[in-house]
Amino acid sequence: MIARAVVIALALVAQSAAAQPKSAGPADPKLIEELILANRILAMEGVVDAMGHISVRHNRDPSRYLIALARAPELVTAEDVVEYDLDSNLVVPTTRRQYSERYIHGEIYKARPDVIAVIHNHSPGIIPFGVSKVPLRAITHSGGFFAEPVPVWEPRKEFGMTEMLVNNSALGRSLVQSLGKHAAVLMRGHGVAVTGPSIQHVVGRAIYLEVGAKLQAQAIALGGGVNYLDPEEGRKIEARRDYIRSWELWKRKVTGQ
Amino acid sequence: MIARAVVIALALVAQSAAAQPKSAGPADPKLIEELILANRILAMEGVVDAMGHISVRHNRDPSRYLIALARAPELVTAEDVVEYDLDSNLVVPTTRRQYSERYIHGEIYKARPDVIAVIHNHSPGIIPFGVSKVPLRAITHSGGFFAEPVPVWEPRKEFGMTEMLVNNSALGRSLVQSLGKHAAVLMRGHGVAVTGPSIQHVVGRAIYLEVGAKLQAQAIALGGGVNYLDPEEGRKIEARRDYIRSWELWKRKVTGQ
Amino acid sequence: MIARAVVIALALVAQSAAAQPKSAGPADPKLIEELILANRILAMEGVVDAMGHISVRHNRDPSRYLIALARAPELVTAEDVVEYDLDSNLVVPTTRRQYSERYIHGEIYKARPDVIAVIHNHSPGIIPFGVSKVPLRAITHSGGFFAEPVPVWEPRKEFGMTEMLVNNSALGRSLVQSLGKHAAVLMRGHGVAVTGPSIQHVVGRAIYLEVGAKLQAQAIALGGGVNYLDPEEGRKIEARRDYIRSWELWKRKVTGQ
Amino acid sequence: MIARAVVIALALVAQSAAAQPKSAGPADPKLIEELILANRILAMEGVVDAMGHISVRHNRDPSRYLIALARAPELVTAEDVVEYDLDSNLVVPTTRRQYSERYIHGEIYKARPDVIAVIHNHSPGIIPFGVSKVPLRAITHSGGFFAEPVPVWEPRKEFGMTEMLVNNSALGRSLVQSLGKHAAVLMRGHGVAVTGPSIQHVVGRAIYLEVGAKLQAQAIALGGGVNYLDPEEGRKIEARRDYIRSWELWKRKVTGQ
Questions:
Q1: In the annotation, is A101 catalytic?
Q2: Nearest chain D CA: its distance from A238 CA (Å)
Q3: By CB neighbour count within 10 A (0-12 exposed, 13-18 middle, 19+ buried), where does B89 fall?
Q4: How far apart, in whole angstroms, are the C-alpha atoms of residue D222 and residue C204?
Q5: Sign of CA dihedral A107, A57, A138, A41
Q6: Does D51 contact A245 at a Cβ distance shorter than 8 Å?
Q7: Running DSSP on this structure, what letter comes out for residue B62?
Q8: What is residue B17's predicted lDDT score, i.e. its pLDDT?
Q9: Alpha carbon distance D112, D126 (integer Å)
Q10: N or C: which end of chain D has fewer CB within 10 A?
Q11: ipTM of this predicted structure
């Protein structure tokens, strides 16, 4: 992963001069297929309802990313997937509606060469932690990637009263500041942005962040204190994490094969 | 929306002299179709079980509204839809049972020219807030329409011990007093009435009011205080709210297409 | 209902001398059909899992009742239904296993001429109230039948350490003492027995007792006090209660028609 | 059960000298079929997601056990089932991935001759009790097998910071120490290991341990104290426990017959 991140970092510097977004060319059809599967898996697992979106960095050019036009993830098909530069400008114009919060994706890809896929969602378990002083933090093995508490982004600090959407680059950059080097960042009164080094990782993380939030809330409700996962335990777990077994199951369930 | 509200207000005045309800003529078949879809979407999303109902103002006459005869929303078909005047008298008599609480709809349409569609339901998340001193109030973007706390109607104040149903005009008028200019009003020990400027809006609101109630309860349970949505944030959100993306998904799911 | 209860009371006295149970003859096929539907509705609504059972008084003889042999309610067919006297002796012997807790049904029918149908179940919402000092009590219209708190039967008082089953008449009589004139009685560390004047009523009550228990728990968790339904409100509601609209929906859902 | 346990104990001693694992020969096809059913039942009931596994002792040799290679339980077929000795060495080598935590199973079979089947899972209800000072303990009849609180294994004590997996024999032995003579042992920040004298028992226990954990959490949340099942009540219940009725239902549901 580290080697790939360096290549991406260099490519980002080389391309920063370009003003008009140019297509990186057709993406790997397998990547598109995996992105469609991811959309449907997220819907099946209750991570997204009609809202929320997932993107992936273009396999040919780290300064481009792929995401659907505005549509419920459950309904997304390959025909809905389009290409953006990292300022979230479309490479090919369209008359269809775009996700107004695509800047979440573009700004994260700009700042974090290690990130290959991003999800923005509003799953019910995580939202309460965005409005509470209680930090979202893993209690269990499946949450190794958030053994350090998940930071919370508060748009009021910098922007005052807003419509609570990350619908321009300035808001996106502010969100990325809060994200820092974490795997995810909560958005106060709104939802979360989750990152990963692959589509499978980011899907697994979004699902288990939701699972983990519900588990933590239940543990708190027992009233007997909470023995959190140690950050060192989290690091050891994540060093060998993959989602191969889960992906096989999720794929079989959404494709019915 | 404002222009249409004025037209409706004038029409209401003009028709208030009429004693015997006369039909406004056949409603737009697309409106009926949307009303049927709405019934089934509300059932699918768990906003209604066998009980609860949705109405829409007649497209030809603001002093008439359309709603099904007594039947579980999931089973409602176009043949079940009938027309009422705003005193909730049937335009065409029937031997079938009517919703005994249709007065909720009639009295809201009378008092609120801006309202085009109304839902009455007993979804599980909202009911606890009707019997608690804790006000129901949005913590998240999807609840922009109740960034101001939802009022609670207490029938005991004016009517003492009742069977807890809004089954006449006097009870309906009392409920409407509590509703005021809000999008929704809780009914103590019973449920809620939700209003909107279109069928899509009222369905979206009923669904996200339920979602929001559950989120708020979870946030309270964390014990770390709750950072509510600011009413000004709510206004900014709602100024541009639509439910187009959600409606596409909900429609596809209930029609299986 | 009252007239029918008197007839039943007289019939019970007249038959109490009989030692060997004799069949009352074939039951109304419509009653059997309704009992089968009820079994499947209770499973669909999560009131029963593999355990739990529903019975109905024989339509020809109030001193006989009908219930399935031991089988998960979801799987019960007309072939599984058998006839018992009120001491819970089989009218026709069988080698198949019987519900060991059929005494719940027999003893309730003996003591309560007004009861025509009984359910015993272990639905998750109600069980916590059987082990808590907080009484189970309606907060909402749908729970009018338990506006007075549901009594709790504690077998330890009379019987000490048991296997927690009502598997003989003495235990059944003790349970009936706690039931009194209520619609339902909780069994500590076990479940509940629910009664009604018809199959439709008892099914509706078992479903809405479970719904109501969850609502009450949620209301308590909000921490703002609970404004319970007044017993007088409950009486007014129940005086006109039926489950016609719900039954139509439930029947359509379990039969798929 | 006791007679069989003695036979197993003697066989374990006799075989402890063997260094290279040899197959005990083909297992009873009905046992394999039951193991496959169990995998699918656990998935259907939400006890496992893509993770978790179930094993059974070989019917021909108590020093061998049968379990699938690494795959989500819902997808496991007879072709995935392989044979291990009690040090969790494969009898027939494979290039496929194995469950890294198979040592849970091997070490339990070694130490507990009475155990015929083992499940390791991470069901959501039980996890909070592994990180809380509140012990997991039955409040109801269905939880008779954990009327004594479930012990919690804390790997930090002996092993410090780990990746939280029982992926070698030393960790397995430590877990078994905590298990003692209990039916189950919680693993802090991870999940649970459940044991039973048959596949049907262990599946029933894993399902009702999850049910019981949720019930206990709800009872605690009511705030009125919790009247737990007495250990003596638990013993009386378990002396006659079987899962015949449940198994018929579960089997019908997963096979669709």
A1: yes
A2: 8
A3: middle
A4: 25
A5: positive
A6: yes
A7: T
A8: 43
A9: 23
A10: C
A11: 0.93
